[in-house]
Design brief:
The two termini are 28 Å apart. The longest helix has 22 residues, at 249-270. The protein has helices at 53-64, 94-98, 139-152, 169-177, 181-189, 198-208, 212-218, 224-236, 240-245, 249-270, 298-306, 326-337, 393-401, and strands at 17-18, 25-31, 41-49, 72-73, 82-90, 105-113, 122-132, 154-155, 283-286, 292-294, 310-316, 347-348, 352-353, 357-360, 362-363, 366-375, 378-388, 406-407. Among the domains are: 33-120, TruD, catalytic domain (Pseudouridine synthase, 2-Layer Sandwich), CATH 3.30.2350; 180-250, Orthogonal Bundle (Hypothetical Protein Yqey, Chain: A, domain1); 271-363, Pseudouridine synthase (2-Layer Sandwich), CATH 3.30.2350. The protein is built from 13 helices and 18 strands. Helix 4 (169-177) runs antiparallel to helix 5, helix 4 (169-177) packs across helix 10 and helix 6 packs antiparallel against helix 7 (212-218). The chain is α+β, with helices and mostly antiparallel strands and 412 residues long. It is globular, with a radius of gyration of 22 Å.
Length: 412
């Protein structure tokens, strides 16, 4: 994300490190609705430390002896953090869930409900973040920047966690849309880098050498799809399309979503100086309900944007995405054409089907507060705020720090 511009580029940088330890980054879901306390589905809140949501779900499913697809969730949460989120499962007694003993996962409560929890059933997330390694005495500057961001809006970039540990999941999604299966498989299984460690690095090197059976055995337990793809390559004499066909559908959707996110970030960057200004032809995003509407005359709607009721929207490209008009349309088309793609490419029979949508170009931190303090680990600034679902807290801190945030070595 180093090439994405800052909105507050005129303000002095602060620097710093986040996630020096998991307790420095706390996230708690704000539900879209409460459980009804009756029904066949058990809603249960977990507190996890140092685990991704999908990894935690797989561990819970294994402990319950059920397919991981049976567990519903509203959103994905950071791995290197302490996070509290609600999951759901049907026909599992609450007392069994409360007795689960899984490393780094704790069940806090269980309530019954009538339906499965679905992705997006989330109002927002509340954050408590401690920033370390920054110069003391800057609290006044930080509060001024936070006030500016609350009025003008934070660039609604997708954060680096959207693009995986290696930062390349969007490239896999692009390869899928281009139906370049060799590229997709090479990115998923090979091309070892300095971000790879241990058995994962060994597995990637074995794949690069064409030793698919050995690579399959080298992939650690959580990397089931990578292991299965290597086995498929061994069976088929190295057929990348057949190997990628067996990858879990959820994972493939994440790859495509990462590519949508990458393109959206480019559109935000192209409008960085006017994220709060409507243009003729824009599709305005209503923050209250997520609906969009056309803006033929910006002067009529700009007061609502000034009040943060609405914002310009950007593309989550897909074959059914509603397009803006005028200059906003031209800006979006240039981003997609630079990748050699068209909206129709997001629909390929038997390969993928991405409808698309719209997303606000900016977001507002709510009920924000910044404190300065010191604990046994040293000086820190503590940020408290909540954000609507889909917005990244790291983007708030990125604007404050004026750097790609360094994540400190996580300790227990």
């Amino acid at each position: 994300m180093q090439d994405l511009p800052y909105l507050t580029s005129d303000c002095p940088p602060l620097g710093g490190r986040i996630k020096v330890r998991p307790s420095d980054f706390l996230v708690e879901e704000i539900p879209l609705y409460e459980a009804a306390d009756q029904g066949t589905h058990s809603f249960f809140c977990i507190e996890k430390t140092g685990l991704s949501t999908l990894r935690a779900i797989r561990e819970i499913a294994r402990a319950l002896g059920i397919p991981h697809r049976n567990i519903g969730y509203a959103g994905l949460k950071d791995a290197e953090a302490v996070t509290r989120q609600v999951l759901s499962v049907e026909h599992v007694p609450p007392e069994r869930l409360m007795k689960l003993e899984i490393p780094r996962v704790r069940v806090l409560w269980v309530r019954l409900h009538a339906n499965k929890l679905r992705l997006g059933h989330l109002r927002g997330n509340r954050f408590v973040i401690r920033l370390r390694g920054s110069a003391p005495g800057r609290l006044g500057d930080i509060r001024q920047m936070m006030d500016f961001l609350a009025r003008r809006g934070v660039p609604n970039y997708f954060g680096s966690q959207r693009f995986g540990a290696r930062g390349d999941t969007w490239q896999i999604g692009r390869a899928m849309l281009r139906q370049d299966w060799q590229e997709a498989v090479d990115l998923m299984l090979g091309r070892p880098s300095d971000k790879d460690r241990g058995d994962v690095l060994r597995a990637r090197r074995l794949y690069a050498q064409g030793r698919y059976d050995e690579a399959a055995r080298a992939w650690p337990y959580p990397f089931r799809d990578e292991r299965n793809a290597c086995l498929a390559l061994a069976r088929t004499g190295g057929d990348p399309r057949r190997a990628f066909f067996g990858v879990d559908k959820t994972l493939k959707r994440l790859f495509l979503s990462a590519f949508q996110s990458h393109l959206f970030n480019q559109v935000v960057a192209s409008r960085i100086g006017g994220l709060d200004r409507l243009m003729a032809g824009d599709l305005a995003f209503r923050h209250a309900n997520g609906a969009v509407f056309a803006v033929p005359d910006p002067s009529v709607e700009q007061p609502r944007a000034d009040a943060f009721e609405i914002s310009p929207s950007g593309p989550l490209f897909g074959y059914r995405m509603t397009e803006p008009a005028g200059e906003p349309l031209e800006m979006e088309r240039r981003v997609l054409e630079a990748e050699g793609l068209r909206p129709a490419d997001f629909r390929s029979p038997g390969a993928h089907k991405v409808k698309g949508g719209r997303r606000a170009l900016r977001f507002q931190p709510h009920e924000w507060e910044v404190l300065e303090g010191e604990d046994e680990h040293g000086h820190y600034y503590e940020f408290r705020f909540w954000l609507e679902s889909g917005c990244y807290a790291t983007m708030v801190l990125r604007e404050i720090c004026k750097t790609e945030l360094t994540e400190g070595e996580v300790t227990a």
